[in-house]
Write a structure and sequence with these properties.
Helix content: 25-40%
Structural class: alpha/beta
Keywords: Metal-binding, NAD, Transferase, Zinc
Strand order of the largest sheet: 3-2-1-7-8-9
Protein name: protein acetyllysine N-acetyltransferase
GO molecular function: histone deacetylase activity, NAD-dependent; metal ion binding; NAD+ binding
CATH topology of the largest domain: Rossmann fold
Distance between the termini: 20 Å
Largest sheet: 6 strands, parallel
Shape: elongated
Number of domains: 2
CATH architecture of the largest domain: 3-Layer(aba) Sandwich
InterPro entries: DHS-like_NAD/FAD-binding_dom (IPR029035), NAD-dep_sirtuin_deacylases (IPR050134), Sirtuin (IPR003000), Sirtuin_cat_small_dom_sf (IPR026591), Ssirtuin_cat_dom (IPR026590)
Bound molecules: zinc ion
Pfam family, one: SIR2
Strand content: 15-25%
Length: 255
């Protein structure tokens, strides 16, 4: 007899039968890669609420010192030395099995693509740290080009086209999500037969609301997260195991 739980065995069955799986991933998928969580018990903002100021659009626009500190934080971001972990790799395998409708992620680290997920299947609802955008003219520049300027001594590099303030192409507090990206995520939630929420506290809207779209459309909902979420009562199965262990087992059993 295997030691897997009933919930895990059921999830493996559903995954095997599914034709269109939409996955939503959050910070818990990337913590094994050394990318810190922000809202969890050991989260960056839980331990230091002032750090959140760096991510507010209003303070970023108003205060050159906030921008200087934000560029230094980007330079020191663990993402530049991070590698995908077995959780990311198993989701790339799920895509290769032909069952993945879309991989919606709240993460900005690009590790799903680094693990082999197709960029056109990955919907980054909170943006990406791998690009810089101008807040005036929306010109986009690869992050390494701008970080090179920061390293060379420019505290807050301006847009080369219009001189505007630049920021990582991530969604800050006070900034709305990009409509096209959000629409694509909602469409994927409505058009799946299994919705897997992995490593997300499901506490941030509109990402969390994707579960509701999937449920209303008749999909099964499986939540894989260490801590309880507001959607646990609506889920068909809850898995508390470490993501890097349970996801590879599930995908191996289903493919
Ligand atoms: Zn510009």
């Amino acid at each position: 007899m295997s030691l897997v739980s009933t919930a895990e065995a059921s999830t493996a069955d559903w995954l095997r039968q599914a034709e269109r799986v939409t996955v939503l991933t959050g910070a818990g998928v990337s913590t094994d890669s050394g990318i810190p969580d922000f809202r969890g018990p050991q989260g960056v903002w839980t331990k230091d609420p002032a750090a959140q100021t760096l991510f507010s659009l209003d303070s970023y626009l108003a205060d050159p010192d906030v921008r200087r500190r934000a560029w230094q934080a980007r330079l020191a971001h663990p993402v530049w030395h991070a590698s995908p972990n077995p959780g990311h790799e198993s989701l790339a395998s799920l895509e290769h099995s032909g069952r993945l409708r879309a991989l919606v992620t709240q993460n900005i680290d690009g590790l799903h693509q680094a693990a082999g997920s197709s960029p056109e299947r990955v919907i980054e609802i909170h943006g990406t740290v791998h690009w810089v955008k101008c807040l005036t003219c929306e010109q986009r520049t690869p992050m390494p080009e701008v970080l090179a300027l920061v390293e060379a001594g420019q505290p807050d590099p301006a847009c080369p086209d219009c001189g505007g303030i630049q920021k990582s192409a991530t969604i800050s507090f006070g900034e709305t999500l990009e409509r096209d990206v959000l629409n694509a995520a909602v469409a994927a939630a409505r058009d799946c037969d299994l919705f897997l929420a992995v490593g997300t506290s499901l506490s941030v809207h509109p990402a969390a609301g994707l579960c509701e779209y999937a449920l209303v459309a008749g999909a099964r909902l499986v939540i894989i997260n260490a801590a309880p979420t507001p959607y646990d009562g609506a889920a068909d199965a809850l898995l508390r195991d470490p993501i890097g262990e349970v996801l590879p087992r599930l995908v191996a059993a289903a493919t």
